[in-house]
């Protein structure tokens, strides 16, 4: 029996790492996550082959800009061990890493951004408490149900 495919929304600021960057490199470690719940999603929830909605945050028009795939099982984020890294964690050790990551592989760019404003217009279809539009949600990684995935992709302009 195979595990069912899961879906995720992963946020990145385009000036730090954009969908164009992912398209250029093809596959990239999703490093620098320093939130335990987001880390747990990568460590405990994500499996190779899971779908990813690539979301640009902190930009003029935040929204979903592309699709990607989880391309590795979780493994330690090396930035936690590097004192020169912005993501260095002095409490982490190679024997007991605190932060994990997965690799993400490019699938495709969307023709047009599915903006956060557009997503909010479909709040009822996405269901109560859809985390992206819930007040105060600052997580960089969010679970998405299969029904939400389908609804969100139906918003892509053809």
Write up this protein.
The chain is α+β, with helices and mostly antiparallel strands and 158 residues long. The chain contains five helices and eight strands, in the order E-H-E-H-E-E-E-E-E-H-H-E-H. Strands 2-7-4-3-1-8 form a six-stranded mixed β-sheet. Strand 3 and strand 4 form a beta hairpin. The longest helix has 10 residues. It starts with 6 loop residues before the first strand and ends with a helix. The model has no long low-confidence stretch (mean pLDDT 94).
Which SSEs are present, and which pair or pack?
Elements lengths: L6 E6 L6 H7 L1 E3 L6 H10 L5 E6 L6 E8 L4 E2 L23 E2 L1 E13 H6 L1 H4 L14 E4 L1 H9 L4
Question: What gyration radius follows from the Cα positions, in whole Å?
Answer: 16 Å
Termini gap: 36 Å
Helix residue percentage: 10-25%
Q: Strand content of the residues, in percent?
A: 25-35%
Q: List low-confidence stretches.
A: none
- The secondary-structure element order is EHEHEEEEEHHEH
Shape category = globular
Please tell me the overall pLDDT: 94
Largest sheet: 6 strands, mixed
- Strand tally: 8
Number of helix segments?
5
């Amino acid at each position: 029996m195979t595990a069912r495919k899961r879906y995720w929304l992963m946020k990145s600021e385009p000036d730090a790492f954009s969908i164009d960057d992912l398209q250029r490199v093809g596959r990239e470690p999703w490093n620098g996550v320093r939130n335990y719940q987001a880390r747990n999603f990568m460590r405990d929830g994500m499996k190779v082959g899971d779908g990813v909605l690539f979301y640009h945050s902190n930009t003029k028009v935040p929204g979903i800009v592309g699709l990607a795939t989880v391309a590795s099982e979780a493994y330690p984020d090396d930035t936690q061990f590097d004192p020169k890294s912005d993501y260095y964690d002095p409490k982490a050790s190679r024997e007991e890493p605190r932060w994990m990551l997965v690799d993400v592989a490019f699938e495709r760019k969307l023709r047009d951004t599915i903006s956060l404003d557009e997503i909010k217009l479909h709040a009822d279809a996405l269901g109560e408490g859809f985390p992206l539009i819930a007040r105060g949600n600052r997580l960089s990684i969010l679970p998405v149900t299969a029904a939400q995935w389908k609804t969100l992709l139906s918003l892509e302009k053809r």
